[in-house]
Write a structure and sequence with these properties.
Elements: E1 11-16, H1 23-27, E2 32-33, E3 39-41, E4 44-45, H2 54-63, E5 68-72, H3 84-102, E6 108-114, H4 119-130, E7 137-142, H5 155-164, E8 168-172, H6 185-188, H7 190-204, H8 207-210, E9 216-218, H9 225-237, H10 250-254, E10 258-260, H11 266-276, E11 281-282, H12 305-319
Parallel strand pairs: 1-5, 5-6, 6-7, 7-8, 8-9, 9-10, 10-11
Antiparallel strand pairs: 2-3, 3-4
Helix pairs in contact: 4-5, 7-9
Organism: Leucobacter albus
Keywords: Lyase
Pfam family, one: Amidohydro_2
């Protein structure tokens, strides 16, 4: 969408909605309907009430002077525990349900979810989605139970996504580390680390080097990636065991990866700028979750006005191919 005035839309690339699902679809995975309308597991509602209210997402966009949102399924609906047959039915249901939820407005642009714990199914779903223009791109879980992203089982997926050109948003799944069950650490520490695991596989496993046209979006300001990128480069430079030989510089690889600026310290944005580059920064709020931001521009308030506009408008436009790559 380019406005009649010629201005590019301001986009939040990291928002969530629950899919529209029937009672029968919920039963597929043992979920029920809570009295307040939310879906529930063992009587515990999944996510905040606003997750089920697309009109509230549109209200948020208006309040923050944003034109569009990329909308992904929230982690409670990933269901990485399902076997491949159950996952096939579930993922198709949640993708159709998210598209239905986003049909309330063309400003809500859904991302089709891919279950990377089942590589063959994920590839099948990509092939099904390639003929569709209903979604702005793709979403998948980073880490958790996902298959290794540099494994041979996913090589076809990366080729298909690179040729397609639409972006893949990687959102962390719940860490399998039992030590993180206390203190909400599965989110506060596990989420940034799971993003790091996924990106580490893409960088050190040669996926990004082999597929330079692949468009990846990271959330939470790249998780731990900005802090460990230089260490990864040191691992390459010193030929550490298991590191693929002949890789391009880490900075070159990460310079093609996009990340939102969802962090709670401006200094983290500054580090992300040095690692990913100003051209790769995007707005992201994690709406409607409390760990996110009420205003996704808060972390970049210290940047100059021209760069803030690039982050809000020009960078997502290039990502979504509204304008050519520079």
């Amino acid at each position: 969408m380019i406005h009649l005035s010629g201005t590019l839309p301001a986009v939040d690339v990291h928002t969530h909605l629950a899919p529209l699902l029937s009672g029968e679809q919920l039963k597929l995975v043992g979920l029920t309907q809570h009295p307040d309308g939310r879906y529930a597991a063992a009587a515990a509602p999944l996510g905040p009430p606003a997750l089920y209210r697309e009109r509230e997402l549109l209200g948020y966009l208006d309040a923050q002077q944003l034109d569009e949102a990329l909308v992904a399924i929230a982690p409670p609906f990933f269901r990485q525990d399902l076997d491949v047959e159950a996952s096939a039915s579930w993922v198709r249901a949640i993708n159709d349900g998210l598209i239905a939820r986003c049909s309330a407005s063309e400003r809500l642009r859904p991302l089709r979810y891919l279950p990377l714990e089942h590589p063959a199914l994920a590839i099948e779903l990509v092939r099904e989605g390639l003929a569709s223009d209903e979604c702005a791109g793709w979403a998948a879980a980073a880490g958790g139970a996902a298959a290794p992203l540099d494994g041979p089982e996913l090589s076809e997926l990366w080729s298909l996504l690179a040729a397609d050109g639409r972006p893949l948003l990687l959102h962390p799944a719940e860490s399998p580390d039992p030590r993180l069950r206390a203190h909400y650490l599965h989110n506060l520490l596990g989420n940034p680390v799971e993003t790091g695991v996924a990106v580490g596989e893409l960088v050190l496993g040669g996926v990004l080097a082999q597929h330079p046209m692949l468009r990846i979006i990271l959330v939470h300001c790249g998780g731990v990636v900005p802090s460990v990128a230089a260490r990864w480069q040191r691992g390459i430079d010193t030929n550490r065991p298991g590191v693929t030989a002949g890789l391009p510089p880490v900075a070159e690889q990460l310079g093609r990866v996009f990340t939102d600026c969802l962090t709670h310290a401006a200094e983290n944005v500054d580090l992300a700028r040095t690692v990913f580059g100003d051209s790769q920064l995007l707005l992201g709020s994690d709406w409607p979750f409390p760990i996110g931001l009420a205003d996704p521009r808060t972390p970049i308030a210290h940047l100059d006005a021209e760069l803030r506009e690039r982050v809000a408008r020009a960078n997502p436009a290039r990502l979504l191919s509204l304008v050519p790559a520079s």
